[in-house]
What we know:
By secondary structure, this protein is α/β, with parallel strands linked by helices. The protein is built from 10 helices and 12 strands. The strands form 4 sheets. A 6-stranded parallel β-sheet has the order 2-1-3-4-5-10, with helices on both faces. Strands 6-9 form a two-stranded parallel ribbon. A two-stranded parallel sheet has the order 7-12. The site of guanosine-5'-diphosphate-beta-L-fucopyranose has 27 residues, from helix 3, helix 6 and strand 7. It comes from Daphnia lumholtzi.
Amino acid sequence: MGLGECRFDFEKKIILVTGGSGLVGQAIKQAKQQDPRENETFIFLSSKDGDLKDPAATQRIFERYKPTHVIHLAAMVGGLFNNMKHNLDFLRNNILINDNVLHNSYKLGVKKVVSCLSTCVFPDKTTYQIDETMIHNGPPHPSNFGYSYAKRLIDVQNHAYHQQHGCHFTAVIPTNVFGAYDNFNLEDGHVIPGLIHKAYIAKKEGKPLVVYGSGKPLRQFIYSIDLAKLFLFVLREYEEIDPIILSVDESSEVSIGEVAQIIADAFQLEHGIVLDSTKADGQFKKTASNNKLRTYLPDFQFMPLKDAIERTVQWFNLNYNIARK
Length: 325
Ligand code: NAP
Ligand code: GFB
């Protein structure tokens, strides 16, 4: 069954989206408006609704909204440099958040939970392309071991809840995501929002764009809106407990230098790009296979990277005042 085609599903769904105010949450808000279903009611949470690290606050949220389905996005999230500085916080905060959300979902008889891992959780020393079966095959890259082990544990928890209680808790594994409402903080954010913010400043100051590291590492980037459409597919159609990678094709993998050039062109920068090799490169590559996704959605069209980056640059220029930075 393709995207947009739906089996008639009259079951009333109350869908709680934890982390609904962030990059991916805002994209799901937009995607569900573009592809609405009468039987679905969405509730988008932010940390203002309650700290999900706190068991009592989490229980209050679940008792208040009584969800039938959960899209679990809430997490301590950050780029390479934030992870390298705070591996312990990424480990503890995400373990606490995930345990509270999954256990309250079990206690309230939630019919389905779709949690969110990341391709950085896979082993650093591996064969390529990486696929879903490799998730526990060795240590992750040392730059983000805290976040990675906390995320791997979600897969372990999903299987444990299924084995002991028959719960239907699953997970998706996206590659690096970008888009509107991202975290454009220069220290803590990911590479695309970081470079967009730096290009914005470079444009104003008539300076070159500074790219951290060698510019050689390779990444697959998925636009938040494409990811959101795939999240809705998984919520509505995907029946497995085992996770599924949500990634663009391997052929769309680019180097950091190439993505920096796309951003510099989008801002029509006139002073070029310089590399700051004093900064870390992190993991050289984490090339993921989307073969499993393609068995479900062989014709899914991803937005070309250049177009998606130009839309994100446009959003940042228009929303500079409200953007997280
Ligand atoms: P984000 O923009 O940083 O948003 C994080 C969300 O989680 C926000 O809504 C935030 O609420 C909420 N949150 C954080 N700590 C919380 C707490 N203690 N209690 C309640 N809510 C809390 O993150 P994102 O990029 O959208 O990531 C969404 C999911 O995708 C995460 O699970 C992340 O691990 C995963 N992921 C992201 C990427 C990527 O490249 N961004 C790649 C792969 C996977 P406030 O807005 O109130 O702070
Ligand atoms: O997106 P990023 O921070 O995360 O960095 P990772 C990607 C690459 O971009 C690294 C380079 O090779 C950086 O050296 N880079 C160049 C920059 N300029 C910049 C810049 O201005 N800011 C940043 N941040 N990078 C993360 C994991 O790894 O991937 C997280 O640590 C999460 O846990 C995320 O999984 C999706 O792709 O290296």
